[in-house]
What we know:
Blueprint: E1 5-9, E2 12-18, E3 25-33, E4 36-40, H1 47-60, E5 67-71, H2 77-80, H3 83-90, E6 94-96, H4 98-109, H5 114-124, H6 129-144, E7 153-155, E8 160-163, E9 166-172, E10 181-185, E11 190-194, H7 215-226, E12 233-236, H8 245-266, E13 271-272, H9 273-280, H10 288-307, E14 311-316, E15 319-324
Parallel strand pairs: 4-5, 5-6, 6-7, 11-12
Antiparallel strand pairs: 1-2, 2-3, 3-4, 8-9, 9-10, 10-11, 13-15, 14-15
Helix pairs in contact: 5-6, 6-10, 8-9, 8-10, 9-10
Amino acid sequence: MSDAVAPVAESIWQVRIPLPYLLNHVYCYLLYGDDGWTIVDTGLHTEDGERTWQSAWAELGIQPRDIKKLLVTHMHPDHFGMAGWLHIQTGAPVVMSERDRQQAIGTWIERAGRGEVMADFMRANGVPEAIADAIAEAGEATARLTLPAPDHLHTFDRPSIEMGGRQFEIIAAPGHCDGQIMLYDPDDQLMLSADHVLNPITPNIGQWPDGDGAPLERYLASLSAVRDMAVRMALSGHRRIITDWAGRIDELQAHHALRLERMEHVASTGATVFEVAAHIFEFERLTVHELRFATAETLAHLEFLRAQNVLTRELREGVWWYQVTG
């Protein structure tokens, strides 16, 4: 097997699709069963991504029309970006959750005015004008890497799906993305955990202008809901295979507890979201792409603290400031 394709479970292959970011790859999956081949997640649409998929098919003896399903766990571009290209190559329908179908359309397909909304959102959270504009421009560049758009996005019509000769339960996993799903095979105690549970990195939990709100609260609740599931192995969207499911979830919960404590301290005498983020993240290492995520993640934590009445929020000359209550 090549470096880009690796068998990871019975009839499941992991495909490493390159990304042009600090996080330089995403893991997608090929599953084979009597129902044919299924792709889970697609990668960002680049020439390297196309070559990687074509190489994987050649290595496994797959003709594109052998692929019968294209399943997207969530609408982020590294998971959704090649859905349209893969649909053209294979003819397979693209399936995702209803919430993420809506957000994929609004974010990538019908995005008129999206850049201006993002720039305004960043400025309201204390991001300097030049960086806010650069973030908006980077969003436009990213949107181009999700083209061509699929001509239709299907949604799940039942609580489970057959693929790779397995029956997977569809599990809602909000937080990183409002409509993200995981896929669980109870017979094999195998989880396709998308970006909900990662190891050793932590998923970005960000609050966005068109999001459902309270993403960190929903993320922590959804972690608790799945912690005690019998999972012997989880195949995620990035980095390592997870073999200690409950232990890794405990680590993620502890990480956010510590981050909340640190952000409360930084905001104790008053600060903007961007100022708090600058104390938490190593800004000198971050690109515009990562600065956007750092700001949105900081906002999610500050809003969590505000919902707990730990912090208050005040609008000063168009910018939100947070400080400790009382």
